[in-house]
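Appendix C: a fully annotated inverse folding record. The material below is reproduced so that readers can follow the format used throughout the book. The structure is listed first as tokens, followed by the designed sequence.
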């Protein structure tokens, strides 16, 4: 790589070199690796605690490689999709290109790829390639015990700077001599703390008190630094970046406003503890934690507003992202749940990359059956064998990134026919029975059942593999079309019940199984809970467990059966011009209430009345039903007809003929409304007047 002497890249390089101190041994080893010197391996593994200067060292390595005319390829472990395919997508230039230096930063966030990187990826690189891996954890024993790697791997542990080097850093950062001793005393050579202290003291806000080193030291430094931000928008931009998995201009626009998003993003990029990759900008992890905790404690109302705006933006991104980016978008949205009561399910997932999602392959069939047999027993194995033949596309396979071997699978069924599978699988049969109680599916609608989540290594437990399965399920919920019901089956209702409740899935039934096990199935009727309502309730998720509150008037609990629904429609027609009576209509317990938002309107009764009138008009759209429509309109829509006899006379019909037309009209009207009740198209419906 060559650059013009007056380029911005060279100016940035010069600025970095001006403040870079120490690490002379590490830089020397890297130069030797570039030169292909004897006794120096081409793979350098840098490791050390957060804030110790790994990213800074990699930037210095980049400068050295540029001077040597090498091509640089960066991989950001914080933002790369933690799978072999995701890693390869970031490194397409490496495999075939000459004179490449591959710099992998933040490797602890995709540490599970370590075995695959060592055994499969690195051996495929050109002989002249130089690779630097930087992360918090040291290399695994497999590296160190493999004699083949003994001459190829350089392990470079990073520690805090010694006192003289730390003093030189402060001098180069322009810290006044009178303040250096206090900073050296509390920073204890920690590079991030030194850099932050230098930033603070240059603004004239650093205190002279001596603090003990560690996270609390960084918290106090950041508190001082935040206090000097240029504006409230700068503060909010920084706090948003600390809260989100990654930050883009679009996210800042959603939180702060479009007019300042570009300016705030450019400012964030210039911060000494900010990095950026393909998915956006992120802050150093320790900085993020301190900023987020401080904001939440200091201004909980503003914190919650930021949380909700961030979630709504990420939700929209998850709904509209291209299929290839969908899981990345879902992961960013799900990341926010670590801040609320669902934290135990998500914050424990601090390591990804060991396993990746894949499709079912012919060689997987028998292994999937065998894993099921060993985990749940012969009945489950028979059911898996059936679905392997009936719906192979419903299987999601999870493989070791290191070996490619199958370690887990999920059966995520998409069903439309109640006759398929129910005779063999009582869980599927019970799910369909629950659907039938609330009304059959309409044309085009489907049911989703997460029937098996077989992971022998952590069966039924919280794990990174289970997290991948959850991301897939949430992706299909959020991006689905015509989803009527979803079911999740688990062997541990006590563990997973709170998360299911949070996700709008109520316990529907329990199924006794082999070996004394009982499966619990949770269900959500999406026709009662449209996606928009579900989004508002679950995404990004509340920050605190809200106390149980009584349902608002008219909120649907148990949906009406078809018989109850038809009776409620007839009674509502009779009460159409009696607001006090219509206010007590059983239709306020129907799905229509939620779907058309009656109780959210200024006048819920008028909203219900408007829906009924629209449905009567819908009957008229069928030319063959004109007589039925006339009977309905004359009886219910015109206040002048106080009795059915009067309505018959108004239409000029014999009473018996009128009654026949009215009865047929009732049936057609109930069919129209029931179609809407089950989520069917309401093209002729107008919300005007609601």
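Designed amino acids, in order:
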């Amino acid at each position: 790589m060559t650059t013009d002497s007056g380029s911005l890249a060279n100016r940035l390089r010069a600025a970095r070199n001006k403040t870079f101190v120490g690490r002379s041994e590490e830089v020397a080893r890297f130069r030797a690796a570039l030169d292909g010197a004897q006794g120096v391996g081409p793979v350098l593994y840098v490791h050390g605690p957060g804030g110790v200067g790994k990213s800074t060292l990699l930037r210095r390595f980049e400068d050295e490689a540029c001077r040597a005319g090498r091509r640089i390829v960066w991989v950001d472990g914080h933002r790369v999709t933690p799978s072999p395919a995701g890693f390869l997508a970031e490194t397409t230039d490496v495999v075939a290109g000459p004179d490449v230096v591959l710099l992998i930063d933040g490797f602890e966030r995709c540490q599970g790829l370590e075995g695959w990187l060592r055994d499969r990826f690195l051996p495929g690189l050109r002989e002249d390639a130089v690779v630097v891996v930087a992360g918090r954890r040291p290399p695994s024993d497999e590296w160190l015990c493999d004699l083949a790697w003994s001459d190829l791997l350089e392990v470079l542990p990073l520690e805090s700077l010694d006192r003289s080097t730390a003093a030189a850093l402060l001098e180069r950062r322009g810290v006044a001599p009178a303040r250096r001793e206090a900073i050296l005393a509390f920073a204890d050579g920690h590079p991030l703390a030194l850099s932050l202290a230098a930033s603070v003291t240059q603004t004239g806000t650093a205190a002279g008190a001596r603090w003990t080193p560690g996270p609390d030291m960084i918290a106090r430094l950041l508190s001082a630094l935040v206090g000097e931000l240029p504006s409230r928008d700068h503060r909010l931009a920084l706090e948003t970046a600390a809260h989100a998995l990654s930050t883009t201009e679009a996210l800042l626009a959603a939180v702060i406003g479009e007019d300042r998003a570009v300016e705030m993003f450019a400012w964030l990029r210039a911060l000494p503890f900010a990095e950026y990759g393909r998915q956006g900008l992120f802050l150093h992890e320790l900085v993020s934690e301190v900023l987020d905790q401080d904001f939440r404690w200091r201004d909980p109302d503003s914190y919650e507003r930021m949380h909700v705006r961030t979630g709504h933006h990420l939700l929209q991104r998850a709904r509209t992202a291209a299929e290839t980016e969908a899981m990345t978008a879902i992961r960013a949205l799900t990341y926010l749940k670590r801040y609320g009561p669902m934290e135990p399910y998500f914050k424990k997932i601090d390591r990804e990359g060991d396993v990746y999602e894949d499709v079912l392959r012919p060689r997987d069939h028998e292994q999937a059956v065998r894993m099921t047999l060993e985990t749940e027993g012969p009945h489950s194995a028979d059911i898996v064998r059936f679905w392997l033949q009936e719906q192979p596309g419903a299987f999601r396979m999870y493989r070791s990134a290191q070996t490619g071997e199958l370690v887990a699978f999920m059966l995520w069924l998409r069903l439309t026919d109640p006759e398929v599978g129910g005779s063999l699988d009582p869980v599927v049969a019970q799910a369909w029975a629950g659907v039938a109680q609330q009304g059959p599916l309409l044309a085009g609608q489907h049911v989703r059942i997460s029937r098996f989540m077989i992971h022998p290594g952590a069966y039924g437990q919280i794990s990174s593999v289970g997290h991948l399965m959850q991301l897939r399920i949430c992706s299909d919920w959020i991006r689905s079309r015509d989803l009527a019901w979803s079911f999740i089956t688990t062997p541990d209702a006590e563990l997973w019940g709170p998360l299911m409740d949070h996700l709008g899935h109520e316990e529907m039934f329990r199924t006794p199984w082999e070996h004394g096990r009982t499966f619990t199935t949770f269900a959500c009727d999406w026709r009662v809970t449209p996606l928009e309502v579900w989004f508002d309730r679950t995404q990004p998720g509340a920050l605190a467990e809200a106390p149980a509150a009584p349902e608002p008037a008219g909120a649907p609990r148990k949906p009406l059966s078809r018989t109850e629904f038809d009776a409620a429609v007839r009674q509502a027609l009779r009460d159409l011009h009696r607001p006090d009576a219509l206010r007590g209509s059983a239709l306020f317990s129907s799905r229509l209430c939620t779907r058309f938002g009656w109780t959210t309107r200024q006048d819920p009764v008028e909203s219900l009345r408007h829906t009924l009138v629209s449905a009567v008009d819908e009957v008229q759209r069928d030319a063959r039903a004109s007589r039925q429509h006339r009977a309905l309109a004359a009886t219910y829509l015109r206040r002048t007809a106080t009795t059915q006899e009067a309505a018959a006379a108004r239409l000029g019909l014999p009473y018996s003929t009128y009654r026949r037309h009215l009865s047929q009209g009732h049936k057609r009207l109930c069919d129209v409304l029931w179609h809407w009740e089950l989520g069917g198209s309401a093209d002729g419906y107008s919300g005007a007047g609601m």
